[in-house]
Amino acid sequence: MASHELRTPLTALTLSADALAGLVDAHDTESVVRLSAAIGRQAQRLARLANRMLDASQIGAGELPIQPEEIDLAQLVRDVTGAFVGEVRRAGGDILVDAQGPVLGRWDPIRMEHVVNNLLDNAVKFGAHRPIEVGVHGHGGGATLTVRDHGNGFSRNPGDDVFGRFRRVFDERAFGGLGVGLHVVHEIVAAHGGTVSAGNAEGGGTIVVVDLPGADASRRGA
Amino acid sequence: VDTTHRPVLVVDDDADILDVYSVVLEDAGYEVLTAGNGQEALERVRRPDGSNVSLILLDVMMPVMNGWEFLAQRSEDPKLRNIPVVVCTGDPRAFGHTPEGVAAVLQKPIGLDTLLAAIRRYGA
């Protein structure tokens, strides 16, 4: 499955590489710009897949190092979300961000970036090109991150099953994926001493809620 | 675009893939139509001018209607049955063998030479 997941972005890169020289020779600037943009987006997608595979591998080996430092989670979410906006809007959707900052705390910025990436990748994939809502709020030194889509939601309440490794609660013939995204989210959040839940949102779609404790409670992962 | 080529319909749920196919095939002289899933593809080829499509490049894993479901619908429709289909997939083993009515199965990643050769070979 991992190999399969890599092959679609590699197709975009391969075809673009094959065609670019000819397009440059033909001075077809518009096509060069379109392919260059696609290359950039697909390279980012490959990077996210690579991160997910590495995280899953480290979790599997029981070695998920967490290196907390003082960060503004709201800013991190705005930055990560910003990288998705172009892709989502091209597909007819949008991302609505409620991340009034700063939301300061001691969390691992790289791992938290992976958490947000994984949740947004899922929301884009299952969100049926409808608006995605992302929220970050601080409370008592901790923070709550929510990501909600307006897709079809779960056909049944998945409970904690959804966080298992290689768990798939959506039709495999309709949606690709490594089957480890939410598992990685769960393990990273747990390593920070936090919790994560996923279910159907009122009014449709899915909602994932990540609760991160403040510094005192998160020493487990430090 | 060389108007002697009839259009190629590309079916994929990845907007970048549709864009890249469009650029490279239009550069090679083909008119390109796109659909984001099997349902959109059916609607496209069932339009009055749909039979003009020379070839369908079909992804497999898609929301709304996946490639397998599209092939099943196509096989029941005499108007669509004659349009050649080339399946583009990351996992050809998922088919076991080339499904009935499918001209070829290409494994991603697909290079430009392979893509153009398939279109020239199987395009009606």
Write the layout of secondary structure elements.
The complex is a heterodimer of chains A (222) and B (124).
Chain A: H1 2-25, H2 29-60, E1 69-72, H3 73-90, E2 95-98, E3 104-107, H4 109-126, E4 132-139, E5 142-148, H5 181-191, E6 195-200, E7 206-212
Parallel strand pairs in A: 2-4
Antiparallel strand pairs in A: 1-3, 4-5, 5-7, 6-7
Chain B: E1 8-11, H1 15-27, E2 32-35, H2 38-45, E3 55-58, H3 67-75, H4 78-81, E4 85-89, E5 102-107, H5 112-122
Parallel strand pairs in B: 1-2, 1-3, 3-4, 4-5
Helix pairs in contact in B: 2-3
Gyration radius of chain B, in Å: 13 Å
In quaternary terms, these chains amount to heterodimer
Q: What's the helical proportion of residues of chain B?
A: 25-40%
Shape of chain B: globular
H/E order of the elements of chain B? EHEHEHHEEH
Rg measurement of chain A, Å = 18 Å
- The total count of helices of chain B amounts to 5
Number of helices of chain A: 5
Largest sheet of chain B: 5 strands, parallel
End-to-end C-alpha gap of chain A: 33 Å
Percent of residues of chain B in beta strands? 15-25%
Labels describing this entry:
heterodimer, A: 222 residues, alpha+beta, 5-stranded mixed β-sheet, two-stranded antiparallel sheet, 18% strand, disordered C terminus, B: 124 residues, alpha/beta, 5-stranded parallel β-sheet, 5 strands, 19% strand
Describe what you observe in this structure.
The complex is a heterodimer of chains A (222) and B (124). Chain A is α+β, with helices and mostly antiparallel strands and 222 residues long. Chain A contains five helices and seven strands. In chain A, the strands form two sheets. A five-stranded mixed sheet of chain A has the order 2-4-5-7-6. In chain A, a hairpin with a 5-residue loop joins strand 6 and strand 7. The two termini of chain A are 33 Å apart. Chain B has a five-stranded parallel sheet with strand order 2-1-3-4-5. Chain B contains five helices and five strands, in the order E-H-E-H-E-H-H-E-E-H. Chain B has helices at residues 15-27, 38-45, 67-75, 78-81, 112-122; strands spanning 8-11, 32-35, 55-58, 85-89, 102-107. Chain B has 124 residues and is of the alpha/beta class. Chain B is globular, with a radius of gyration of 13 Å. The interface between A and B is medium-sized, with 35 and 29 residues.
